[in-house]
Amino acid sequence: MLLSNLLAIFSLLLFFAHQFTQKVLHLPIPWADNYLDPLLCMPILLGGYRLEQHWLLRRQRLSLFEVLAITALLSFIFEWIFPRFSSGFTTDWWDVAAYFAGALGFYLFQKD
Predict the structure, then answer these.
(1) Cα separation of 110 and 28, whole Å?
(2) Going by C-beta distance under 8 Å and a sequence separation of 6 or more, which residues neighbour residue 49?
(3) Taking the model in full, what pTM does it have?
(4) Domain locations in the chain?
(5) Residue 60 contacts residue 54 (beta carbons within 8 Å)
(6) Distances (CA, A) of 82 to 51, 71, 85, 90, 108
(7) Which is it for the CA torsion 1, 7, 75, 88, positive or negative?
(8) Each residue of 19-59: pLDDT tens digit?
(9) CA 89, 92, 96, 101 torsion: positive or negative?
């Protein structure tokens, strides 16, 4: 559990560092500006969900089905639902790939 918690914390710190460079320093990093947030999203959200499951139910890990189902649901919401209702969001299927890559990393790291 320690390794996946470290991944979630590292992802959260990297997310905040990127937001700082992007929004405060106005430093463009094209790949990171486009795909880093979706890549880090799932380790952060799944890490929080896993922590909640551990505190409430003493579960040590999430199943592959849970990780895939949560990732698919959030990808659908972020990349299909939100763009339909707000012009501030755009559909980018590469983001979906980044969500699933982050989820895969989370799943593999939780095998500690």
Answers:
(1) 32
(2) 62, 70
(3) 0.88
(4) 2-109
(5) yes
(6) 27, 15, 5, 8, 29
(7) positive
(8) 999 999 999 998 988 899 999 999 999 999 998 999 999 88
(9) negative
